[in-house]
Amino acid sequence: MIPIFKHMLTRYSGWLLTAGVVGILTCTGLGQRPTSSGGQTAPVPAQKSASPARFVVVLDAAHGGDDGGGQVGASVAEKTVTLALSVRLRSLLTARGFTVVTTREGNVNLTSDARAQIANHATAGSGGAACLSLHASEAGAGVHIFVSSLAPTQSARFLAWKTAQSAYVARSLKLAGTVNSAFEHSSTPSGGDSADANAGPIPATLARASLPGVDSMTCPAVAIEVAPIRSADRTVVTEVTDPQYQTQIVETLAAALLEWKTDQETDSHPSGGRLP
Amino acid sequence: MIPRYQKIVFVVLLVVSIVMGTILVRLREQAHDRLLKGEDVAPTVAPAVAPAEQATLVVANDSDGTLVEEAQSLPLPKDAEARARALLDKLLDMYAGPGSLHPVPGVPKSVLQVFLLPEAQGTGAKAANGGQLAVVDLAGAFADGHPSGILTESLTVESICGTLRANLPRITEVRFLVDGQPRATLAGHADLTRTYLTGDSLASAAVAGNPEGRP
Predict the structure, then answer these.
(1) Which one, of A202, A199, A71, A82, lies nearest residue A142 by Cα?
(2) pLDDT (tens digit, 9 = 90+) per residue, B47-61?
């Protein structure tokens, strides 16, 4: 009997060794492909980098699919304007070296929970992040910058889904300040149908609001609502659908995000080192 | 030949029937009189006209995204719920008027009802102070016709909360219904599923344009 066992051990030792290694890897999870944290099912982000210390910008074009949002201009749906802004901004940011994740690339339905899931998966473990929810409206004037109205709380291991943003409100306020500062240094679009070309910066309004998607995001998040530029008597000078106006806005947002990224890197590593 | 005792029974039953019939007719007449008396009383008393009072409306401005307190003189009923509805009707009428800084199309009855409820148990000091939860039931036509946008919708909600708090200080929380049913958003943006704290509205009015609340 002993020679038989010896013969089998010699012949199948390679197989046994391989099976053992595979078994250990399976048990420890080292052999599995990386998956999204939390175990939740979420739509796959449009773009995502695998760099561990990447700076991620999440662009959420509001509405989409059956949800057209409000009416902007003569006959344009809000969802169309927000998608156009998202695509333009993504191009600018990608060119500047950002890792950009968009919640939608086409005319698709997305719930606010799905948008927050995409943002949270994309920013989990990133070196720095900024989440922008893009909206458009005919009401008001200029650009409205919103931060969640949730009261700031300390970060915890587990956060309630509906109020997860509360742990990031302080950083969201800083991000809103950076964006507001960028708009203060911007200039209104020239040419086109603008009557008051180069009349001054694009007016920006800072406010707090309760927004279902943003309130669940675990990243510094602001909602940007683009409204027409109006004159003193409140007549529309530049429509939201004006391509030059949109270009001016996305360029200003890109500059703000670049400054935000620099600030974050400086805050994390004053000596100029890499992000954790 | 009919026995004598049967004649007596017949007479007694006849008399009882006549008496019962008379009583029934009389009772019917009395009920009819009471009904007529009630009908007479209802319409003859004219509704009392509430005297005009000073009220504070928290009015929104789309241009700069601010809420501004504005004193108005208007007749207000004594009942708190009717008073709240009258205040909100006036506020939304102003938004529907020409030259409004926060234009919102008006409908005949924008606010269907305002219910005032004691705050839920377990909300701490507020409950002990007798805080109230106001449930504002908006008309579906009003919500459907409201302009879409984060700023305009938030300002409408915040101005309603602020107006209620400014005139009925016991109201500390506000919830919204549309046509008696919960609704996710007012017109696609402002969250109507949450409970709004009226203290936050006044804070918003005070620090509009300065979200961090810095002086």
Answers:
(1) A202
(2) 567 788 899 999 999
Token pair in block for residue A33: 């492909």
User: How close is the nearest chain A Cα to the Cα of B168, in Å?
Assistant: 23
Q: A132: domain range?
A: 46-268
Cβ contact B114:B81 at 8 Å: yes
Res A10: pLDDT: 58
Q: Using CA atoms, how far apart are residues A157 and B183, in angstroms rounded to an integer? A: 32
Shared-domain flag, residues A77 and A148? yes
Cβ contacts of B190 on chain A, cutoff 8 Å: 209-210
Report how far residue A120's alpha carbon sits from residue A98's, in angstroms, rounded to the nearest whole number.
17
Rounded CA separation A26/A4 (Å): 31
> Is the dihedral angle over the CA atoms A21, A22, A26, A27 positive or is it negative?
negative
Give CA A156 to chain center in angstroms: 21
Look up residue B84 and give its two tokens: 């709240």
- Look up the CATH number of the domain holding residue A254: 3.40.630.40
Please indicate if any CB of chain B lies within 8 Å of the CB of A139: yes
CA atoms within 13 A on the CB side of A153: 17
Token readout for B107 is 């409908």
- What's the number of domains chain A is made of? 2
Q: What is the CB neighbour count within 10 angstroms for residue B73?
A: 10
- A177-202 per-position pLDDT tens digit: 999 999 998 876 655 444 444 467 89
Is there a contact between B164 and B171 (Cβ–Cβ < 8 Å)? yes
Task: State whether B142 and B39 are in the same domain.
Answer: no
Of B188, B191, B211, the CB nearest to A70: B188
Domain housing B149: 52-206
